[in-house]
Amino acid sequence: MASKTAADVLVDTLIEWGVDTIFGLPGDGINGIIESLRKRKDEIRFVQVRHEEGAAFMACGYAKFTGKLGVCLATSGPGGIHLLNGLYDAKLDGQPVLAITGLQFHDLIQTHTQQDVELDKVFQDVSVYNARVMGPAHTRNVVELACRSALAYRGVAHVTMPVDTQSQPVKADYRSKRNIAGHVSDRMAESAHIPNANQIAEAAALLNEGKRTVILAGRGALGAGDHVIALAERLGAPIVKPLLGKGVVPDEHPLTTGGTGLLGTRPSQEALESCDTLLIVGSSYPYVEFYPQPGQAKAVQIDIDPQRIGLRYDVDVPLVGDSVRVLELLMPHLAYREDRSFLEEAQAGMREWRELMHERGTRTDMPMKPQVVAHELNKLMPSNAILTTDSGTITTWVARHIDIRGDMMFSCSGNLATMACGLPYANAAAIAYPGRPVVAFVGDGGLSMLMSELITAKKYDLDVKVVVIKNNTLGQIKWEQMVFLGNPEYGCELEPVDFATIARGCGFVSFTVTDPAECATTLRQALATPGPVLVEAVVDPHEPPMPPKIKPGQAAKFGESLARGTPNATKIALTAASDTVREII
């Protein structure tokens, strides 16, 4: 029987840590690892992608949707470098991901050999744990600690191994006298940190004293929705949701005013502008300009990571711990707030907002409005669907027009706000949850970056429905140039792509829709078609994703950009006048 190799030890250790799926692309710098995966293919699945960036996004999406360790694999040099954007996505959104890469032959490193990139140095900033395997006897200790670190610190761990070391027999490696076998464990301890009784009492007193309380519930509150709702009901507090917290409570629940920030709702922004008490649950939403003004509100923050306490707003009472546990401790100390006027004011505003969104989502004019596609898709999405999206104007349409309900799951690139993640996320979700409907609602700019992952969806016959909003422009950048800077748009127009034809070339069933009257029928047919399907929705490129409340300065910048020579200025002005800007008149 052949001796076990260092790569065999690596794969064995991953299996011991519960890893069942690895996303990657073979290469000569990881041939030893690929061979070990081949030998254990009945226990651990290797998913071949078409670009390593897609592998890292899939590992991040897999971690987001399952809570398990996401793992990606890339060869030495360029393969490893390609992982970085997806790994930064995991870092900034706090997801446990392990990246495994190859190095060139151990005795040729730093000699200008082919693909001579020291990836452990390259990955230094993105990683919570980062190590180079020095030999077969070093492998188990390093891989074990990498898995543990990624899960414990909810971040990226990186292990890189020279290609010749991967195939080296374990028995041929000299074990140092201090590296005694059997001292490494695959058991994981969960943190039991909870606030003490005094901290809970102080937080409860602050919340009880408030009159106009807002709950800001982010990604760290996913899974704590019932507790957040119970607390909101007791305090008469509207629940505001940053985008990664969209799934904390159903969008149609009467206690939530939906999203916040540029993608959010007017009632959410008005609630934050007028509150006197703020409870932050599992969020470090980065846009500080949308929080209450400094000194306006007393604040309590719940977060499992003490480093994030007080990061965005001056917090009076910090509560470090898991959202569910802390809310359970806090609830018995909170009094029922008889005055419901603040909540009722927010609810009235939300009814008006939803009427406005319905009006925009049912427009029949041509070219078709992007909101129409999101509105019709929302009516057709099953309650167990998994929804992913990209970064750009597409995120606005998802945030405002697609409701999370039932057992639905949703994610996007939160803090990195990278393009191209939507399709790989969807592929990962379909692999993690076969049988559940998965929809990637993406823009033409983001999809064109990683269209190669359409092939991955076809290769594994994933039940992924891709709805691409085609406006032939980098819409978010275009509107930022105009509304926030007052500059004419420049460099944002995209060469049109026939996504439906490309998708058919990849083996997809595909549809194209241009008429709002046909949108619902086309989407219904696409969702009912088994396997990978793409819908290309051609929409108005001049539809603006304006902020929920337009400030006079933004309107002035918008007018300035038109006057300074923005292409299609007349069409843009007419669209805006008939749609968003008229709200401030």
From TrEMBL:
Lineage summary: Bacteria, Pseudomonadati, Pseudomonadota, Alphaproteobacteria, Hyphomicrobiales
Gene3D superfamilies, per database record: 3.40.50.970, TPP-binding domain
GO BP annotations listed: carboxylic acid metabolic process
PANTHER family referenced in this protein's UniProt entry, alphabetically: PYRUVATE DEHYDROGENASE [UBIQUINONE]
Residue span, Thiamine pyrophosphate enzyme central domain: 200-329
Family, similarity comment: Belongs to the TPP enzyme family.
Database matches in InterPro entries: DHS-like_NAD/FAD-binding_dom, POXB-like, THDP-binding, Thiamin_PyroP_enz_cen_dom, Thiamin_PyroP_enz_TPP-bd_dom, TPP_enzyme_TPP-bd, TPP_POXB-like, TPP_PYR_POXB-like
Keyword Transcription regulation in annotation: no
Superkingdom to which the source organism belongs: Bacteria
Name of the protein described by the UniProt record: Pyruvate oxidase
Record domain Thiamine pyrophosphate enzyme N-terminal TPP-binding: where: 5-116
UniProt KW keywords: Pyruvate, Thiamine pyrophosphate
Limits of the Thiamine pyrophosphate enzyme TPP-binding domain: 390-536
Recorded GO MF terms: catalytic activity; magnesium ion binding; thiamine pyrophosphate binding
SUPFAM superfamilies, alphabetized: DHS-like NAD/FAD-binding domain, Thiamin diphosphate-binding fold (THDP-binding)
Keyword Disulfide bond (UniProt): no
